[in-house]
Each structure stands twice: as structure tokens, then as C-alpha cells.
């Protein structure tokens, strides 16, 4: 498993797409007979520990995995008649002034939440507590990653639960020159055709539209995109099949945006939400739609993860 991404050191880092094949092979093997509770990032968003969480929940035959009883409410969208192509063109124009990173360092701050999968039939999580991450990467690929516990957003923490106090420092990592962990190790290109090739180098030859949505999500956790780079994203999305305009909404941080969605990744619907004024990416979400054996006790549809970008420098 570690060979899929040997430089990962944090349980909060993104999991590369190609590691899913490694998981599939492991899941087919032996069982584990003990109750476990893991915070599980949804498929393409996690560190190695998150990947192992999927493994442990999926292979247990003694305790059928179930999702947390708490999840954010589904976002509400106001329908629009705008086509995907027109929306992408409009967002591309709005993004022309995006400056990209300023100075020699890139800093990306975001809030994230992932569903917990429980391998313990007597335990369930009754609240949603996201966390906040700040990633700083210098020009020599040194940097840092700091993670704090966020506020309890939905639900109530039982008296006997071990929830982290909001603001608690969960993890603080530093990386020497050349060691900053990245899935996408070179800056993203500024044309749609080059961007497609860039993504396929990680995704493989036949990614679904949902896989491209997750790739845009992963890329935005690692690089601050400027106007031409965002224009390439919008041009690529306009070329993808099975994309619909979800409509206007308010994201998890209370910001107005417009969303697009696709249900082409097995078991999930992926949503990207953009700022209509700046053309920047505000949030990404995935909703579990059912049909996966390792989540057979998970209600569907249910919000499974979200990331909301705060500041990009």
C-alpha cells in the first residue's frame, strides 16, 4: 500500500486515485474480528491511514460496517436553465483575474469532513465535526501541514464521547526541501488538452467524469490555480459527458455559489461549487448513492464528504 504513495506521512493527506486498485486487492483477503472506529475519507480523499480505514471496515465479516448516524444535510440547489457549456464559459471569463499564488510559497487553507465508517454494531457517531487544514509549500518543495479540530456543525456530542475541542491541534508536519507530498508534482497546464493528459497520468486511460471531478478536487488541495489554469479546468469540464448544472446554492461556509454535478463514479454523486464572481472553486462534495457492498448498511443518499476552500495565497 505504501508503495502507492511512498512519501505520505499524514492521515489527512489526499489518497492518490491509483491506490484504489491496491485496496481492492487487499479487501479480497483475510478478515478482522474486533470493533474499530475509523474516520474514513471518501475514496479519493485521504492519507494512508484513511486507506487502511477503508480496508479494515470492508473486510470485517463479524461487524457489518455502518456510516455515522450524523452527516451534513444535503445542499439545496435552486434550479437554473443555464447549460453546462454556457456556465463554464461564464466562469472562465470571471476567473481571468485570478492571480494564482503570490510570492515563492503557496498556502491553501480548507475545511474538510469525511463520513466515519463504524465497525462496531453498538457504536454510532451522532455529530459532525470537520477539521481545518493549512498547507504551505515553498518553491523548493519544503513546507508544512497543520490540522486543527473544527467546530461541531451538526448534531450533539454525547457526554461520554471523546470529541476534540474545537481549535485543538491535531497534527503538525514539516517537510524538508523536495519532500512535500503531492499527487500532482508539477504545476497544472493552461490548456484543456494538456490538462486531460496531466490528469490521466494519475487516473489512468479511461477515467469517468466523476474521476475528473475528484481530480479537480485533489489538484485544488495542492496548487493555487491562476486564471489560465482555471480556464483550462472549465474548458475540460465543458467537454466531459454526463455533467449537469445543479443550480445555485450556499456552501458549508455560507458562501453563494453555483454547482455542477455528475453521478458517473460508482456509488457516488460528485458536486463542484464555484464562485460566480471570481470564477474560483469554493467547495467539493460527494454523496453516497448506495450499491457498494462495503457500505451496505449505510443509508443512501447521504453526504459522504465535503471540502470547502478558505484562503488561497
UniProtKB/TrEMBL annotation:
The chain crosses the membrane at residues 40-62. Keywords: Membrane, Transmembrane, Transmembrane helix. This is CU044_5270 family protein.
